[in-house]
Every structure is written in structure tokens, then in C-alpha cells.
Amino acid sequence: MPADQIIDTQAHIETPENVRLTFRLAGPGTRLGAYLIDLVIRIAVVWGMSIVIGITAPFLMSSGLPIALMLLGLFLIEWFYGCVFEGFWSGRTPGKWVMGLRVIKDGGYPISFFDAVLRNLLRAADALPLFYGAGLIVMLATRRMQRLGDLLAGTIVVREQRERLRSALPYLRSVPLIPRVQMAAAYRPSDRTLDLIEQLFLRRGVLATARADEIAVILARPLAERLGFQGEPHEAVREPSRFLLRVLRTFSQTEEELARAAEATLLEGAVPQAILLEKVP
After folding, report:
1. 34-56 confidence digits (pLDDT tens)
2. Which of 8, 127, 163, 229 has its CA 20 to 30 A from that of 273?
3. In this structure, are residues 122 and 152 in contact, taking their beta carbons and an 8 Å threshold?
4. Is 228 left (phi over 0), alpha (psi -120 to 50) or beta?
5. Residue-wise DSSP of 181-233
6. What is the CA radius of gyration of the chain?
7. Exposure string (b/e) for 9-28, b if CB count within 10 Å is 16 or more?
8. Helix (H, G, I), strand (E, B), or coil: what is residue 92?
9. Taking a C-beta distance cutoff of 8 angstroms, is the pair 69, 57 a contact?
């Protein structure tokens, strides 16, 4: 591997929308820290479970049932701890959360539960022969510091800055929605596209203004076309950032909120008509 790839701790990802994202890769040290925190949590759970089983053992009908319950608990904790947390907590375990790490797809978007299962199933192979020796060797040999489970699932572990920057978007709730009547096409941006928009605004503090505006235009133009946007002419070109915020606000709503917005739009259009009818003799 070239030397510049060894010391490079950043992953540069080119998305289908021609947006170049940069993530800071998590090295072996921080990943070890996250693993040790998760290990302590798992040991604490096993310890608590053993106490409960020990207390209730005299009341169980079968003498072999406490051992069976203990073995079942150990199996579930060992094999499903990472799967459940990473699959349902946006690629994080408690240890990764404490260390500021997150698992994402190598394309830059969130992992699914299936991806979490794949990367954790190969943890046993990564642990060979001792102390995750195989996983460490593979991590050091790959450009994006991926262990065997990451290579199989197509994932990478990055340093997460999202929570620290999330307070940068408190104004999203005040951004006006795009009414349904202004969208001619029945198109809904994918979660991946919405994530890209959100990441753009979360990273505006670390991106050059010109570069952020350039990315906003690249995203806004095709989105306006696919939505069949019929609102203010040229908004997607002249004010791409505002347009993207409106898209993010609109398609981040629940069905109930969207229904209320649609009802409000209909009422706004109905009021002038009602006034006209009252004036007719």
C-alpha cells in the first residue's frame, strides 16, 4: 500500500449526485476504546443476569434450567448486542456513542439492520487467532481501515460529528413547507438524499462558503426537476440552500404533519372563494 494511503485517515466518497463527502476514519485505538466500553457493559449484563438466575434457581422446576438460561443469555449478548444496537441506533453501540464513532455504508449513507448483522457475524473470524489479530491486520492493510466484517457488509467506521453539530439546525422547524400543489410529480426523495442535504447544512461550518453553495446547486437543480417544482420561479437556482432546506423540512414530516399542511393549503385557497361567494347578490 502506498505511504500516502497509510497515513490518510479520511475517506472521500463521490455520491451518485456528484457530491464529494469526506469522513474521518476511526483508527484501531478509538475502535478498541469503543469495544472495551461495550465489553464492560456486556460483562455487567451477564453479571446481573447470573445474580437473577442464582436467586430464582431454587424456585425453578428443573435443575438444568438455570444453566440453560445462562447459556442462552450469553449467546444472545455475544451475537446480537452489536447487531441490535447498530441496526436500530444508526450504526452505533453505547461504546461507539461514547467514543464518537458510527458505522456507515462505504457509499456514505446509513447502514441497515441486515448490514449490521453481516458485519457482526464475522466478528468471530476477526477475533482469530487471538485478541482480534486477524481484524487488526486486515484493518491496517485496507485503505479505509475495514476489518473482515466491514468488507463483507460494505461498511466503514467513522468519527461522528453529527451530534456536536446538530444544534446548527434548530431553525429547520421554521422553514416553510413546499405545498403539494407546487409539486407536479409524485416523487419523494430517498432517505439517502435527505441525509446528504442534512449533512451539507451540518457541515457548512467546516466547508468553504463557495464549495457549500456549489454543492447546494448540484443537489437543488435535479431535485426541483424530479419534484416538478412549480413554486417561485428559479428558486432552486437563485436560492438553492433555501430550496434544499424546504425539501428537507417537507419530506422529514410525519404523515399527520403533511396532512395538516395540505389541509392548511386547501383552506388558504378556499377562503378567497368563500369571500367572493358572499359578495354575489
Report:
1. 999 999 999 999 999 999 888 88
2. 229
3. yes
4. left
5. GGB-S-----HHHHHHHHHHHHTTTTS-HHHHHHHHHHHHHHHHHHHTB-SST
6. 25
7. eebebebeeebebebebbee
8. coil
9. no
CA 44, CA 73: separation in Å to the nearest integer? Answer: 12
101: cell is 464513532
* Ordered DSSP codes for 118-181: HHHHTHHHHTTTTTTHHHHHHHHHSTT---HHHHHHTEEEEE--HHHHGGG-GGGGGSPP--GG
Question: How buried is residue 158: exposed, middle or buried, by Cβ count under 10 Å (0-12/13-18/19+)?
Answer: buried
How far is the first Cα of the chain from the last one, in angstroms, to the nearest whole number? Answer: 86
Angle at 13 between CA 10 and CA 16, to 5 degrees: 170
For residue 236, the 8-state DSSP code is: H
In the numeric block, the cell 422446576 is attached to: 61
* Listed range (45-54, 55-64, 178-187) with the worst mean pLDDT: 55-64
- Residue position matching grid coordinates 392548511: 264
What distance in Å separates the CA atoms of residue 201 and residue 117, rounded to the nearest whole number? 31
Work out the angle between the directed axes of helices 240-251 and 209-227 (0-180°, nearest 10).
Answer: 60
Buried b (16+ CB within 10 A) or exposed e, 160-198: bbeeebeeebeeeeebebbbeebbeeeeebeeebbbbbb
pTM over 0.85: no
